[in-house]
């Protein structure tokens, strides 16, 4: 018996190390894929070790159920991940994260009756169930917002007060169940439903601009719920994995808030595109005249440039133009033009979205330059090509104290000698405000679908 337990603990230790190593490798695009595979190997090892080295009273049908669940989950996850477009990746992350929260909540529902009378264990179960339930329902709302099913924030009357009342009620009810020793399964299910309701109320008023932060925050919730489950079972690999996910998600959440110059409370209790943002959009709508350009003129400009910086945004992902923009980059380099990509932390709909999108086309990782490192380069850049980005290049973040994005760190595109902006229309970005950069004297607007426009741009360059 001791030999089996020792072997299982060694497997858990190895798995925990792979999580840490894998997470470390995820910090750089060049090693991210390998890090993901290493962590996945550790998880597979932990699962197999738990199944085959567990010694206890287990009916044979349980193993069939486990095998069936693993098979279904593997086929489901593999199939979706293989087919998903890069534009759908953020909502896939929300969906999978929600499944993790649901698993933690189900553990609480099932294990509650087995630990009644043990205050510490009941506290662990209740805490994990509440956090997991909030993560599940909140992630489902985030998924619906990202895929367009819920494309507008829903503002309930006095929603901040309502949310806080529900949260206090959940915490109070959970404390009562824990301290009173109540064994009623009905109480548990009422608490479960209340937590699901709070998850919905928590995310439903938050706008699309804040989705990267929300995804990171809900991810940290799922990790915390998994850590509580690991503590309950005395399972070190669940505890380690949960702590890593929870802490990484929390760090990333605050990093995203810093990148947007917004406190977390502002994300939770307010959303871009509401209130003053809308007023700002109306106020800025007549700030100047637009100067339009054509693929031919843009090609001539870039052909004779010494240095070009490309700023990718969500519009690039929507048009699935990552391959053609890489072709544009290679073509310019053949002509002796230096090309770099400027990456803003919250470009796209999830952290690292643009890095993943461009890595898919084998763009050299050294050309993906983060905002802090590339901002000083814009003043020495002949041409900047902005593709589908909006709020992350809006000078209002520096110039307009009344703007909802004022103080937000942005890419200093306005400092370049010439600016070309590709957009499908003049619709505002997530923040719901007009972009001052569109009316800059150095800016030329190149309207159209990113893939079509870039294809024409490449064709023009090939003839020069």
Please describe what this structure looks like.
The structure is a single chain. The chain is an alpha/beta fold and 464 residues long. It has 3 domains: 1-83; 88-271, no CATH class; 289-462, 3-Layer(aba) Sandwich (Rossmann fold). 61% of the residues lie in helices and 6% in strands. Strands 3-2-1-4-5-6 form a 6-stranded parallel β-sheet. Helix 5 runs parallel beside helix 7. The chain starts with a helix and ends with a helix. Residues 271-286 have low confidence and may be disordered.
**Major sheet, described briefly?**
6 strands, parallel
- Main structural class: alpha/beta
Number of strands: 6
Report the uncertain regions.
Answer: 271-286
**Mean pLDDT level:** 85
In short:
This protein is an alpha/beta fold and about 475 residues long.
Write the layout of secondary structure elements.
Elements: H1 2-25, H2 29-53, H3 60-83, H4 89-111, H5 119-146, H6 159-180, H7 185-203, H8 211-233, H9 236-260, H10 264-269, H11 276-284, H12 295-303, E1 307-312, H13 314-318, H14 322-334, E2 338-343, H15 353-359, E3 368-370, H16 371-374, E4 383-387, H17 396-399, E5 419-423, E6 443-447, H18 450-462
Parallel strand pairs: 1-2, 1-4, 2-3, 4-5, 5-6
Helix pairs in contact: 1-2, 1-9, 4-5, 4-8, 5-6, 5-7, 5-8, 6-7, 8-9, 12-18, 14-18
